[in-house]
Amino acid sequence: MRKIVLLALIFSWAISSASWAAKPQKLTNPQKRAAREAVRALRKLHDSLGVAQTYNQYSNRVVDTAALVRNRQRGIPAGAVKTNLTKAIGAYDDARTIWKTALGFDGDAMMTWAMAKTLYQKKYPNIKWPTDKQIKDMSPNKVNLNYTLEPFWGTAQAFTEWAAAGVGKP
After folding, report:
1. Is residue 144 a part of any domain in this protein?
2. What confidence score (pLDDT) does residue 19 get?
3. Which domain holds residue 37?
4. Which has the closest alpha carbon to 146: 51, 82, 9?
5. Would residue 8 count as lying in a domain?
6. Pairwise CA distance, residues 60 & 42, whole Å
7. Based on CB atoms within 10 Å of each CB, which residue in 32, 64, 107, 167 is the most buried?
């Protein structure tokens, strides 16, 4: 539990310094409704991470959520809300890609970690990836797949909340 809390703190700090936060965007009521439905679907996907699941179950959830989000985005004009929704589902999909790749590495966690780190730093250069020491402190004997996926999931959650902030209160 201490390890999960430490990881959450690391990502909360890193993400809070990012500059993608959405300011309230002028949206019509139907546009707000579409954006809120997309945010609700992304939050539901995030909530499902706390339940044990296989790669196939996670993959299906990501694909279903992406379809719903993209459908709702059609009714939302260009701007921070739409951009953050796109980035949120993209981060969940990146985690799906890493997980699928990990299956091909036959459990070689360090290989998966290195590939994930490279992808993350390329796609999210303004958000800090945890240092090798921070990860070693969390898992002294090995790097766990969840630790490798957590940066993507935390980033997706941040983009989701920035999209929600851009919609404003109901």
Report:
1. yes
2. 43
3. 27-167
4. 51
5. no
6. 13
7. 167
pLDDT of 129 reads: 76
**Distance between CA atoms of residues 127 and 142, nearest Å:** 24
Give the Cα separation of 139 and 155 in Å (integer).
Answer: 21
Residues 14-72: pLDDT tens digits? 444 444 455 678 999 999 999 999 999 999 999 999 888 999 999 999 999 999 999 99
**20 domain-assigned:** no
Orientation angle between helical segments 80-104 and 29-47, nearest 10 degrees = 20
Domain count, the chain: 1
**Which residue do the tokens 């299956």 mark?**
103
The whole-model pTM stands at: 0.82
Q: Is residue 2 part of a domain?
A: no
Report how far Cα 135 is from the mean position of its chain's Cα atoms: 19
Per residue, the 3-state secondary structure of the chain, as one string, reads CHHHHHHHHHHHHHHHCCCCCCCCCCCCHHHHHHHHHHHHHHHHHHHHHHCCCCHHHHHHHHHHHHHHHHHHHCCCCCCHHHHHHHHHHHHHHHHHHHHHHHHHCCCCHHHHHHHHHHHHHHHCCCCCCCCHHHHHHHCCCCCCHHHHHHHHHHHHHHHHHHHHHHHCCC
